[in-house]
Specification:
With 71 residues, this protein is mainly α. It has helices spanning 4-7, 10-26, 31-69.
């Protein structure tokens, strides 16, 4: 699912993750369903982290560009 980050925005991945957490907390899923939800949640958490890491790199680059321009 390497290309999944491009197909899911941060907001979409986060919203799906919130729904999964809510379902797991409710305790209404079977064990098998819970395992699948957990695995999907792990994927979504990874996607969100990749988005956040990318944003952090962009911000650092922008800050560096401003510092370089100010010299």
């Amino acid at each position: 699912m390497a290309g999944e980050q491009e197909s899911l925005s941060y907001e979409q991945a986060r919203e799906e993750l919130v729904q999964i957490v809510s379902t797991l907390e409710a305790g209404t899923a079977t064990l098998e369903e819970s395992l699948k939800l957990w695995e999907r949640g792990e994927e979504l958490a990874r996607i969100c982290q990749e988005w956040l890491d990318g944003a952090r790199v962009r911000l650092a680059s922008a800050a560096q560009s401003e510092t370089d321009a100010g010299q």
